[in-house]
Amino acid sequence: MEFYQKEQDVLLSELKSTPNGLQTSEVNARLEEHGHNELKTKAKDSVLKLFLETFKDAMVIVLLIVAVIQILMGSVVESFIIFAVLMINSVISVVQTKKAEGSLDALKNMSAPLAKAIRNGEKVTIPARELVPGDIVILDAGDYVPADGRLLEAGSLKIDEGMLTGESVPADKDTETIADTVPVGDRSNMVHSGTLVVYGRGLFVITGTGNNTEIGQVANLLENAMTKQTPLQKKLDQFSKQLGIGILILSVVIFAIEAARIYFGGSSNISADMLNAFMFAVAVAVAAIPEALQSIVTIVLSMGTNKMAKRHAIIRKLPAVETLGATSVICTDKTGTLTQNKMTIVDYFLANGKSGKFNDRPDTWSFDEKRLMQIAVLANDSNINEEGQELGDPTEVAMIAFSNKVNKPYGELRTSYPREAELPFDSDRKLMSTVHTIDGERLMLSKGGPDVVFGRSTKILVDGEVLPLTEQRLKELQDQNESFSDRALRVLAFAYKPIGANQTVSFEDENELILAGIMAMIDPPREAVYGAVEEAKKAGIKTVMITGDHKTTARAIARDIGIAEEGDIALTGQELDALSEKELHAKLEQISVYARVSPENKIRIVQAWQDKGKVSAMTGDGVNDAPALKQADIGIAMGSGTDVAKDAAAMVLTDDNFVSIINAVEVGRNVYDNIKKAIAYLFAGNLGAIIAIVAALIMDWVNPFTALQLLFINLVNDSVPAIALGMEKGEPNVMSRKPRDPNEGIFAGQTLVSVLYRGALIGIAVIISQYIGLGYSDEMSIAMAFTTLILARTLQTFPARSNSQTAIGAGFFSNVYVLLAVLFCSALYGLTVLPGIREFFSIPANFGWTQWGIAAGLAAGAVVLMEITKLVIRKKD
After folding, report:
1. How far apart are alpha carbons 397 and 3 in whole angstroms?
2. What residues have CB less than 8 Å from 411, skipping those under 6 apart?
3. Active-site residue (options: 333, 393, 621, 647)
4. Rounded CA separation 54/60 (Å)
5. Strands 490-498 and 441-448, how do they pair?
6. Which of 158, 598, 617, 716 is most exposed by smallest CB count within 10 Å?
7. How is residue 57 annotated by DSSP?
8. Residue 650 near residue 636, CB atoms below 8 Å
9. Confidence (pLDDT) at 877
10. What local confidence, expressed as pLDDT, does residue 638 receive?
């Protein structure tokens, strides 16, 4: 049996405790056994270890080998450039990893610093970390609960458990034993570490401390939840390994061929020729590796974060930008995300059968309507201050806000009929009453749960006349209450009774009431959510509601906004627990609503979708959401949520709005498209260089490029156009496409064809240019090959903007950053031919306008062919 299912005396006996608390000697013994009341976590990896792990990448290893070789060969500049790039990428990686470790620290910070306990029969204030199971703790309004425990006393006790349940309405607490198995949100006789007492007082015995609390279980889940790699990260890692191995094999093969040619060709200077052959192989490695790839991807993702920030989505972990584009399932919270997180009066019902909405002309209201509104506003402790801040219980705030909305300012009523006495709300009575003199008559006004008020009423107000409450009239009200409940509306009933001028009211007076009517309220969906859910469907994204609210309410909201369709299933956390993995996987596609769920339930749901190969996004705001936020492919925290949730998430919504998630998905898809364009641009250029090098090897020409030339192109020249491609506007159909398959390769679709074709054209242009240059000298052939390669790769930016449209067709001036990038790179190339600099780039003094014109013409011709091919293919289609 659980603690909440045991009688108080049985539980106290098991814990070897009494209402007078523990003795000091017993406390010391239990501290030895259970440890201090604080969360314990695993040791984190050191910064040095994280830094060293960044060098495990295959491409990084190849570059390190190349850099070491460059040092041995005396090429210090080239090796310095390579080391600088690797260090920058490593530092960025370590910083991102350390940022992701904040969630557990934030969880620790939620612990209460001090607690009021009973020790040795006396009340003492002690550090909360010194509490042990069996300690008796006192709670007052404003206290944070320092540990988990079972209530022994509860006086009008209300606790905000939103961090664990996700619900904004404080939970009413009592001491009654609960027979059934219920989720955390329904354990009314338990209190939990880290929650906040908002009303009343209580006394409880501690049943769990440290990691043996509900928040401790969350910490364990959070620590064990796997931080997921994004689809792009996975593919880049896989491709990096394949490319690294491929480059090493190609370099070795090239060196072997050259070495055999030298050895069997009767070389006069074998050592010098072998050295040149070796440098040839090194040049292949430098040409093939896109050294700036990681940096460019990071920059493009960063630009995506800026766009998302403008749409109320703050990205905490850069890769999340790209993950959003692949999202196929969004598991979203209800309260505040799909709904307005603001209880609103939407209906009422009077004994005369009238229902609907109050009109906004109070002077036309019937006596019954006026009385109903008077009770709702006067038997009410909430307020709205001068700054418009709403203070008090959300259901009470809904009533005074409603009064204001229908042009009956609640302040006027309270000024006209001041409170003379009150019987505050009590979780046992589920009733609140106040005393006022209205139109010369002293009245006690009462509001509470319908069943309670119905049971205490003997009369009813009908068209200004007080009549006996007959069975028929009561049934009409009960039926209407049931109808409201079926619509997932929260219902309160209102009643009153005349009292004597000098009468002092007591709880016994809350009987023989005159029933005035009932009001129904709900936390309504955000208006824009309807369209956002529909847009998600068009984009092939399934929306699933996961909430701590009751099943009926959740299902009604889900149906209303279009999440739940005909044939869809709604499950509670307990019903989910009863399903085997096989049963869950079979029903998963049909389950659109999960209610009253636990943190473990949320992780299981996310993992089930991930097992199906779906990229899942999870929203949340409470501590209970943090493990699932970390487990999901992309965790999305609410800006109004806990620091724990924000630290565990990859993205934070500043407006807590589901619509912002869909907007962010659109940006994410655009970003991924642009990353692929940048990657294709880089690899097409690198392929062109490799083709030229291999051709020179086969034809026994001099190596067409130096390592410095290739590093200059890869790191400096190509970076700017690649970044400019990251600024491309989204395709018109971006949100009508299905989510991309997370298992598809980087070069899926037309990307590989484009890379091969554009790379081949660049390579051919360079080969022709080198051939012409050889007619002058080996030095001139290198200069012309370099010029053709750098110009072709720069101009390739235009066809790289789209695989199907020409630069003119896509709007030549629609991305001004591309134009600026091409101009910048052209000027950059101009610097390499200046006197005093050209020597570093192996450009001879006799390289002039004629040679530049030939190289430029070949480069431009290759790019024109790229664009013409698009027109031919489109015409055939």
Report:
1. 35
2. none
3. 333
4. 8
5. antiparallel
6. 716
7. S
8. yes
9. 38
10. 84
Residue 180's nearest CA partner among 430, 428, 2 is 2
CA–CA dist 340, 747 (Å, integer): 43
Helix (H, G, I), strand (E, B) or coil at 283: helix
Phi, psi angles (nearest 5°) of residue 732: -60, -30
First to last CA, the chain: 70
Instruction: For residue range 538-554, list pLDDT tens digits in order.
Output: 999 999 999 878 888 88
Q: What is the mean pLDDT of residues 242-251?
A: 81
The amino acid occupying position 677 is: K
Match 């015995």 to its residue by tokens: 205
Token look-up 């609503």 returns 593
Alpha helices, H only, 73-117: 76-99, 102-108
Cβ pair 635, 289 in contact under 8 A: no
- Partner residues linked to 349 by β-bridges: 355, 518
- Taking the CA atoms of residue 638, residue 641, residue 647 and residue 650 in that order, the dihedral angle to the nearest 10 degrees is -10
Highest averaged pLDDT of the listed ranges 243-247, 311-315, 349-353: 349-353
> Whole-angstrom Cα distance, residue 558 to residue 510?
38
Is 711 in contact with 82 (CB distance < 8 Å)?
A: yes
* Alpha-carbon dihedral angle through residues 92, 93, 94, 96, given to the nearest 10 degrees: 80
Q: How far apart are CA 36 and CA 28, in angstroms?
A: 10
270 alpha-carbon distance from chain centroid: 61
Q: Tell me: the pLDDT tens digits for 728-746?
A: 888 778 888 889 887 777 7
Q: Which residue has the tokens 């399932």?
A: 329
pLDDT digits (tens, 9 = 90+) for 820-856: 999 999 999 999 999 989 998 999 999 999 999 999 9
Share of the chain above pLDDT 70, in %: 92
What's the rounded mean pLDDT across residues 720-731?
88
The torsion angles phi and psi of 22, rounded to 5 degrees, stand at: -95, 160
List of residues 6+ apart from 9 with CB closer than 8 A: none
> How confident is the model over 234-255, as a mean pLDDT?
79
- Tokens encoding 229: 């790699």
Q: Is 616:602 a contact under the CB 8 Å cutoff? A: no
Distance CA 714, CA 295 (A): 12
| 396 pLDDT higher than 90 | yes
Q: Say whether 451 is catalytic.
A: no
Q: Which amino acid type is present at position 348? A: Y
Strands, E assignment, 740-783: none
Please tell me the pTM assigned to this model: 0.70
Strands (E), 61-195: 114-119, 122-127, 136-140, 148-160, 171-172, 190-191
Q: What is the pLDDT of residue 797?
A: 95
Tell how far CA 721 is from the center of its chain.
Answer: 31
Distance of CA 867 to the CA centre of its chain: 40
pLDDT tens digit sequence for 773-786? 999 999 999 999 99
Side-chain-side CA neighbours of 561 within 13 Å: the count stands at: 31
CB-facing half-sphere around the CA of 287: CA atoms within 13 A: 30
What CA–CA distance (Å, rounded) separates 668 from 311?
12
Question: Position 19: which residue type?
Answer: P
The answer to whether 547 and 525 are in contact (CB under 8 A) is no
